[in-house]
Amino acid sequence: MNIYYLLPCRISYDPTRYPKYIPEAYCLCKGCLTGIYGEENFHFRSTPVYMPTVILRRTSACAGGRYVYTEDYVTIPVGCTCVPEQEKEADSVNSSIGKQEMKLLVNQNDKPASE
């Protein structure tokens, strides 16, 4: 069973944009609401979901007594989702380097003994 609810939103206003008003969602919680009673779980984090959108941006030019607009692509937060919280690795500054080294070691061990 999926539970849907309305997210809080802020209204973004820009007089040089069409549309001038755009609702933007934001996440209320740091963690995610899970369980039967919707307890906040900090093993997950609430993160915004973005949607690419085309708007019209007014330029400084006029043609025939009317404003000239150009297309502009923006990303707008439209909702929130839960993602697992990453575990902190204290002994490594860049954990991806350690993962690459591990992959190399694993791949070396996969070679047939006949080589």
TrEMBL record:
What molecular functions are annotated in GO for this chain? cytokine activity; protein homodimerization activity
Its keywords, alphabetically, are: Cytokine, Secreted, Signal
InterPro entries with a match to the protein in the record: Cystine-knot_cytokine (IPR029034), IL-17_chr (IPR020440), IL-17_fam (IPR010345)
**Keyword flag Chaperone:** no
The UniProt entry, under Gene3D superfamilies, shows: Cystine-knot cytokines (2.10.90.10)
One BP annotation, GO = positive regulation of interleukin-6 production
Concerning its family, UniProt says: Belongs to the IL-17 family.
In Swiss-Prot or TrEMBL terms, this protein is called: Interleukin 17D
Gene symbol here is IL17D
